[in-house]
Amino acid sequence: MPRRTQPRSIQDPDVTSLAAVLADASRIAMLDVLLDRKAYAVGMLARRSRVTAATASSHLRRLVDARLVVVTAVGRERHVRLAGPEVAEVLERLAVLAVPPRPRLSSRAAELRFARTCYDHLAGTLGVAVRMALVDRGWLHATGDSFEPAPALFTWLAAHHHPVPIEGHRRPLSRSCLDWSERVPHVAGRIGTAIAEVFLDGAWVARVRGTRALRLTARGRRALTHELGLRIPIPA
Amino acid sequence: MPRRTQPRSIQDPDVTSLAAVLADASRIAMLDVLLDRKAYAVGMLARRSRVTAATASSHLRRLVDARLVVVTAVGRERHVRLAGPEVAEVLERLAVLAVPPRPRLSSRAAELRFARTCYDHLAGTLGVAVRMALVDRGWLHATGDSFEPAPALFTWLAAHHHPVPIEGHRRPLSRSCLDWSERVPHVAGRIGTAIAEVFLDGAWVARVRGTRALRLTARGRRALTHELGLRIPIPA
DNA sequence: GCGAAGCTTCGACGCGGGTCGAAGTCGATC
DNA sequence: GATCGACTTCGACCCGCGTCGAAGCTTCGC
């Protein structure tokens, strides 16, 4: 990959180098592990990504240099976290473009397609279904490419112990996040986070260990029907 | 880059391969040329990207396979276009992440920072300034991470010969597009396109040949003051 | 039809970089 | 301060792929 010496006329932010960092299966595996928003020690991250510590270490260096992840020293361990929601967003955006035209089915992917976390909010069939249910009840209004939450939604979130303050935060109240599996937006932003927390705390969904997939529980099935009038999309 | 054989647990859309396509300076240069939304013959594209026809051809193959560009045969030429606005969006998103922490100044980049096209709408200092002016006059309301155009804006656009129908289109009326240079959103979507067209048709801005940069004309300076009450951000 | 133009394919070259084991470093623990 | 554990650095290996010139193919123009 001989670098060109002439001045890059455009795209002065070096997209090429950033893409090069993302163009390795092991590094994507590591980022994928980190997409659950938790911090991992380097060794753990290496094991989850199926590489040796030495390999993980060299990859880590590049991820840090690209400012995709941040590292904090904790005792003799070094904990790695995703640098922020923007990173998760870009990865999800890339996934949207990367999804093959004729979707090759993978049983493993089916779980992810049905329900998963996207950094800190719900995605997949379930995420989209929830968004549609909220719009149907008038708790959420679609505006442009975003969503405007109605007062009833704030009330509902507060009643489920996850109140969302309206003002005073840098992060947007609600955002629309494009789904790679559904190709349709779901709710992100602070509202999206709160919704996901209600689902997880209420044990409406359970994390499938080792992946970002979520399993809809029986309890969750009932809750969705009673609370949101939502027909369960797919038995999963 | 030895591919791992084990089933990729997550990220089933193959982000790695897509990123690999974007991880080459020549291909980014080609995409960058195409970001102006026009179609280019392969030879022209090769010249603008400073590679031989043979090299461009092999890159083109990969870009087509990744469905980032589309090709239409025209006589003995083959015309290349960006596959769609989503591609431009992802590139702009990547650029946001790729922008270096201590912005290294480049005189060439300064033009781009001030004003440029982003696929089909205005970006850069000017794009952001226009967005803020529209919000100030109440012609645009910020909602979540998008914008809601007010009736006055539709009237203004129609008066300048670029009416925007409210309904009946798959593309969103207005979108918010994050600016890599300003790190602040500007207006995209059908409204964003119409605004850019008013600016270009009215010769308020002129394209700088060979790049996506825009130059603010004297006429544009006057128009911005009179029509939008906008103080010119920077003499450029 | 014949030549030329536009583009792709082929072949050869060279370089960047992903991989792991082993050795080295640093901090924690007793 | 000796030992263990977590992590990084080093060295060696090898493979993928970007690059261009030349040759081949198709389409246009006269």
Look at the helices and sheets of chain A and give the structural class.
alpha+beta
The strand count of chain A comes to 11
* Strand/helix succession of chain A: HHEHHEEHHEEHEEHEEHEEH
Number of DSSP helices of chain A?
10
Low-confidence stretches of chain A: 1-10
Give an account of the 3D structure.
The structure is a homodimer of 236-residue chains. Chain A is an alpha+beta fold and 236 residues long. In chain A, 45% of the residues lie in helices and 18% in strands. Chain A contains 10 helices and 11 strands. In chain A, the strands form 5 sheets. In chain A, strands 1-3-2 form a 3-stranded antiparallel sheet. Chain A has a two-stranded antiparallel sheet with strand order 4-5. In chain A, helix 3 packs across helix 4. The longest helix of chain A has 14 residues, at 85-98. Chain A is globular and about 50 Å long. The first copy, chain A, starts with 14 loop residues before the first helix and ends in an 8-residue tail after the last helix. The model of chain A is unreliable at 1-10 (pLDDT under 50). At the A-B interface, helix 1, helix 2, helix 5, helix 6 and strand 7 of A face helix 1, helix 2, helix 5, helix 6 and strand 7 of B. Chain A binds a DNA duplex (30 and 30 nucleotides) through residues 1-2, 24, 26, 41-43, 51-61, 73, 75-78.
